[in-house]
Structure formats: C-alpha cells, structure tokens
Amino acid sequence: MIRNDRRLVAIKLVHTGIWVFFNAVVAYMLYAALTDRIDRWFWCAVAAVSIEIIVLAIFRMSCPLTVWASRYSDATSTNFDIYLPEWLARCNKIIYSIILVAKPLCNGSQVRGDYAAGDRRRDLDSVLMHALGYILRHLCV
Predict the structure, then answer these.
(1) What angle do CA 100, 28, 90 make, to 5 degrees?
(2) CA distance 29 to 27
C-alpha cells in the first residue's frame, strides 16, 4: 500500500503541475488577445490547448492521469488525483470550456484585424464575466 500511496502522490504532483502549466497557457492566450499580441507564442498556446482537448476527447473527457490515478485509489472525490480544492476540481472543465469558447468569440475581431469593434468586444467580455460568475455561484457550489 505504501508503494501505491507514493505513486498516487507522484501522479497528483504531475497532474497539478500540468494544470498550473495550462493555466499559464490560457492566461497568456487571454493576455495576447486583449493586448493585440497575436504572435507565434499565441498560436503555440492554441496548439497546446488543442492537443489537450484532443487527449481529453480520446479519454472520454477524462484526463489520462485521472484514469491512471484511479488504479491507486478508491477515492471518489473529484480532486483525488490533483492538489486542487474540491469545488475547483469539480468545475474546472466548465470554467475553461467557457473561457476557451467564449473568449475567442469576444476577441475574434482582433484576430481578423477589425479594431473598430472595440465597444462590441467590451460588451461580449462583460457577458462572459457574468456567465462565469453565474456558473461559479450556482453550478459549482
């Protein structure tokens, strides 16, 4: 059992590290879109997130590390395989799905080069923030 505990801790550490990495990637994507810095690093970030989405799709919307960690634990909580609070582990996919789907729609005019759409973009950003707030208040509690 001690061996399994060490394996689970190792998986949790790796999983948490990857989660932090992808948070940085998504934060950079948002920063780049908001500051008109659509450069090669932005597209590298898009590629990294796209690969993550493909992997999640292959594993039926479950992280492969979660599948692996389940071999070493009987726990049923959503954060048994990662060092995150329960509510964040439970709502993680919802939060990032909204950010990754809605934010490009809000900033689509920047990628196309239509900078006259600033007011509309601010309105869409406001809708996005209200949607995230609603989800955090009602679905993730």
Answers:
(1) 45
(2) 5
Helix (H) or strand (E) holding 31: helix 2-34
C-beta separation of 36 from 117 below 8 A: no
Q: SS3 for 90-130, per residue?
A: HHHHHHHHHHHHHHHHHHHHHHHCCHHHHHHHHHHHHHHHH
Question: For residues 128 and 141, what is the distance between their CA atoms, to the nearest angstrom?
Answer: 19
Q: Tell me the chain's radius of gyration from C-alpha atoms.
A: 18
Please give the Cα distance from 73 to 50 (Å, whole number): 29
Terminus-to-terminus CA distance in the chain, angstroms? Answer: 34
Q: Return the DSSP state at 48.
A: H
| Chain mean position to CA 38 | 20
Q: Phi first, then psi: what are they for 43, rounded to 5°? A: -70, -30
Residue indicated by tokens 């908001």:
34
Contact 32, 38 (CB under 8 A): yes
Predicted structure pTM score: 0.72
Question: Token pair of 91, please?
Answer: 């709502």
- Positions of the chain with pLDDT under 70: 1-3, 102-141
